[in-house]
Amino acid sequence: MTDGPVLLLSCEHASNRIPDEYRHLFHGCGSLIASHRGYDPGALACARAIGRRLRAPLIAASCSRLLVDLNRSPGHPALFSALTRTLPRKEKDRVLTRYYHPHRARVERWVEARITAGHRVVHVAVHSFTPVLDGVTRKADIGLLYDPARRVEAALCQRWRAALQESGSGSLTVRRNYPYRGASDGLTRYLRTRFPASRYAGIELEINHGRLRGNADQEQLAATLAATLRQSLRK
Ligand SMILES: [Zn+2]
Description:
The chain is an alpha/beta fold. It is 37% helix and 16% strand. The protein has one domain (6-234): Aminopeptidase, CATH 3.40.630.40.
């Protein structure tokens, strides 16, 4: 066993698939489903490319956040979208059982097994964000989200940001806890309640999807992200 942490990638907003049994709820919503409100465009391809380069497993969701948002906790007002919020309780429970809990449980079990085996785990949840939200242009290419109260996470993100800025991709603007705060509701926040800071570091990688428009963009950025993450994990 090496001293370094083991890496897990996940992608909660990988897909905009609506399972057949729920299609009737989404009539006339094609453009919504295709938009960033339906999924994180480019995130899955980028996560796969990072995983290939670092030989890290990837656990990716297979349904749209418009059905149920895997990055929100049970009870959160945005767990269900405007299109699924009015479903009867029983039907919501069914959605949770079939599409929500399996992904969250897979990630949790993977982390738990590695920690039980004596490893430290770095979990990077890969997301993308829309360049312009409600008329406001986001001023970053990459956001690294973490809990400032967890020193291992803060230090890792500091190293990763520095490595990205020194990587020769000088045009990349990398910000910490932007465009969201890492301590906000999400899968990593939940896992922090399950595992100690000394064993588990949960980072959300937020990529401006203006940077992920073509396959070449995705590959190039993934190569840079993977190389700099590898470098940051070594220290
Ligand atoms: Zn996301």
